[in-house]
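Budget justification note: compute hours in this period were largely spent on complex prediction jobs such as the one shown. Inputs:
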Amino acid sequence: MGGKVVTISSGKGGVGKTTATANLGISLASLGKKVVVIDADIGLRNLDVIMGLENRIVYDLVDIVEGRSKLRQAMIKHKKFDDLFLIPAAQTRDKMAVSPEDMVKLTDELREDFDYVLIDSPAGIERGFRNALEPADEVLIVTNPEVSAVRDADRIIGLIEAADKGPGKLIINRLKSDMVKKGEMLSSEDVFDILGLAIIGIIPEDELVLSASNSGVPVTLNMQSKAGMAFNNVARRVIGEDVPFMNLDENPGIFQRLVGLLNGR
Amino acid sequence: MSNLLSRLLGRTRKGSGATAKDRLRFVLQHDRINLPPERMEEMKREILAVIVKYLVVDQDRVEIDLEQRDRTHSKLTAEIPVAIHTPTAAKKAVENTVAAADSAGANGANNGADADSAEAEADSKPDEAEPAKDEKTDARGDDQEEADQKS
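Corresponding output:
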């Protein structure tokens, strides 16, 4: 059956789905995988700007579905990776322009040539989410350590399981370890206790993520960024590597740095 | 520093993270079974109203809770202490009943079920409390006095 379709979802908006999708795409490509990322948020296209590919768009997802463009014509090759492509969302249409069946058909075609097809799901639980969920082999749920994001995550986890696509895996994004230490933020353990899903990534809060989206160069390409490293670790776990979770302390001691170096981080 | 300050000022010792966790647990419990908290309370009252028609219940120690092992396994558990059929237990239960009736009255008796149930308990008393039969039969007023004296 070829490649694997991985959908990145969250329920709540603004938790970092698109950032996660872009960074996973880059990381997987840098690990030598053939990757295509699909922006399924029709009408609110964003993955293109986060990846810095906005001015190369000619055709989009809806053009493919409605037959105005061949699949390959609409795929935008990344500047840095020859085996990383983007299929952008249409900006002037709405989610009803694409059906879950369209998405299955499209991804089945892509599976033949790619190792991973990543789908950036829109927020919400309606058609756009259904479109992104239907073709998924695996679902990653992005959440923040914060009540509304966790509540919404729980809601879509239920829907994912009801659709027989579960269990998903969690990416806990924007964790502030200093606040967790003070007891002023849910810890990753707390989120795990509440949602009961395996955690595939813990991404620390990192100002470099904003700088990265400002410049359209995903943060995982920045070796200085802890969030970038954490996203890279998620990608390695996605391809089946056993990667320990990194130490998110603000100022790691010399010993921890050494251990990190030895682990290749 | 701000943490220390807030402790000195006597604010919550428990961080807001723990509060977030508790609140999430509560809200998800109800989200998952699609039964809002207020409806759940209503259900508990109705369950209890049925039971007290047949049994003498120690209302203060009743615990009806929703237990959740995970997203797909929820269990409603109820611990409802019931009076045993001995004269002293029966007597005690009557006092409890009166107390419950009093408190129902204090609440403006806006809940019909509560008032009814208190009555049901009181009515069931005479059969159970043989030695006290003469005094207790048809004697809610006496019970009331007894409880008043005790308090």
